[in-house]
Amino acid sequence: MITARRTGGPPRRGAAAIALLVVLVAALVGGCAAPAVPAPDPAPRAAVPTAPLGPADVGAWLDGLVPAALDRTGIAGAAVTVVRDGQVLATRGYGSAGPGRPVDPDRTLFRVGSVSKVATAVAVLQLADRGLVDLDADVRRYLDIDVPMPRGPVTLRNLLSHTAGFEEQIRGLFRTGPGGPSLREFLATDPPEQVSTPGTVPSYSNYGYGLAGHVVERVTGEPFERYVQREVLDRAGMTTATFDQPLPAAAAGAMSEGYTSVDAPPAPFEFARPAPAGALSASATDMGRFASALLGAPGSTPLLSPAAWALMQRPALGADTLGALADGPRMAHGLFDESRNGHLVLGHGGDTQWFHSRLQLYPVERIGVFVTTNSSGRGGADTLELRRAVTEGFTDRYLPGTAGPAPAPDAGTPARAAAVAGTYESARRSASTFMGAMNLLGQMRVAARPDGTLLVSPAPNDVRPAAYAEVRPGLWREVGGQRLLTVRTDADGRVTALGHDAAFTELPVGPLRDAALLGTVLAGSVVVLLGALVAWPAGALWRRRYGVVVAARPRTDRVLHGLTRAAAAAALVALTGWVVSVLAIASPGDVPLPVLRGLQVLQWIGLAGVPVAAAGVVTALRARAGAWPVTGRVLLLVALAGVAVVAVVAGLLLPSLTY
């Protein structure tokens, strides 16, 4: 589960609104630019000498890596466990779990976020192994709620591989107090729109895993939390782990505090919804036991039969539905393909507001690595970089190998690179509501370079750009790295999707939705409207002070001018309100429906001001008002039209207020 977050706040609401509007404009204008990067040799890296994979070296390596990262980034606390063949190679706790409480990897509980989905997938596969569910049947066979599926029936295989086609929905993902709807009520209330054909567009979905968990409830006849506790957590020997919210009394005292950074006060306990997508709390040691049980390590109780475990490792879908996206990393059944150095690596990350985790499994070597933090750090990518340093660093240190396929001699032509160049937006998006405005802030730009490589800004799951060289048509590999980019095209050769992670896809957007263009339009429009709203009273005061007499204008012209002013004010208030509301929702929080509907009314008033402003231009021309008045009215017309275009493209006028 992934959310944006807001920290702090200015003392005055008016100043906050203006500041937030400026932030949005700046993000739209400047967020798409990225510095150029050099083009190093794209040949695969050779293996480096391995360090001895044993408790002494792993422990020393972690002790040298993690504490320094905590000090550098301001992450309050972290825990790591590494297991092989059921034996603990290292289990470490670092930093603070709260005032006067050092992190204890055996006892301290962390919210593992979406790593919870791995346990949910295990529960579903257990039922499939027993013949109680069919992974390829219409999931509505097992549901007692109405989930519209206009693009096609969804299967459990789609849910486990994030290919059900649902749009993003974040309302109610996190609460800071008990109560709230049951799993069934959560899923039945305003389900997200299905925006793509099942099986064709990987798009991460918390709602989809909520449905999978509800199937477990329906088939077993007991609450999801009770079934998964008995059949997954207890069987794995996880003595501290629970999906319960609030925590049982025995576990509550062991729960780590959550922080934005070590400099901030502790945050309230997070209640995650839907529970199957992200409610698990566990210690690092217990997550090591979970990894060992999945891997079938000696001495552990298997969670799945050999056939079901083999199924969990296999890609859920193939080229028949995914097309060229199947050439890159694919979702298995509940696990991401995160292979590295030629080794099969399956994993899953998890993010709540405060906690950040990653679990990786090496099925062939029967190794498990788990890392978790209780805060994000001072920088936006701090916890991401720490988790990568542990997981990728472990593979590079102990399981070296080649980085991946080398580009073919005839690959990387400038023409093929030019065909991929453009602006892209995540398929994990809100397509039918005003939250589509959030998509504009996360666009990816792909530029073709003269040498036939691509510059991707920002690179997938990164804040920096990266270059990609073509391995073969439709498949590109990171220059100097191992990430892959797949390109799916239609019959006419036009790009329809970019794949970069097992459950994340980027879709091309047209020029009208380009954030850089929209940001420029919005910035110019806001400047004109603000200038006009300030100029009107300032001009009146100036004329009064110096006794300047202005010729009387026709009544119709005065009315049109007044209505244009009202529309300009409404448009600016609406924009400011949308920024405040979207940031509040993403923090996450709730915004009352009447407030959102009121913003839409103001936005419509701003839109209605476009023809009014156009009529004002006409009346000014007919009255021979002079060059400056006419120019001012034309600028107002253009500014109101610019805001209207942004509102329409961003989805601010869509009737649905579900988020």
Structure commentary:
This protein has 659 residues and is an alpha+beta fold. The chain folds into three domains: 13-30 and 514-650, no CATH class; 55-398, DD-peptidase/beta-lactamase superfamily (Beta-lactamase, 3-Layer(aba) Sandwich); 414-510, Beta Barrel (Lipocalin), CATH 2.40.128. The protein is built from 18 helices and 19 strands. It has helices spanning 13-30, 55-73, 116-129, 156-160, 183-188, 206-220, 224-233, 249-252, 275-278, 284-295, 306-313, 319-322, 382-398, 414-420, 515-546, 555-586, 593-622, 627-650, and strands spanning 77-84, 87-98, 101-102, 110-111, 174-175, 271-272, 281-282, 336-337, 346-351, 356-362, 367-373, 422-426, 444-448, 454-457, 466-472, 475-478, 484-489, 495-501, 504-508. The strands form four sheets. It has an eight-stranded antiparallel barrel with strand order 12-13-14-15-16-17-18-19. It is globular and about 90 Å long.
**Major sheet, described briefly?**
8 strands, antiparallel, barrel
Q: So what's the overall shape? A: globular
Which structural class is indicated by helix and strand composition?
alpha+beta
Helix segment tally: 18
The residue ranges in which pLDDT falls below 50 over 5 or more consecutive positions are 1-46
Instruction: Name the assembly state.
Output: single chain
Q: How many angstroms separate the termini?
A: 15 Å
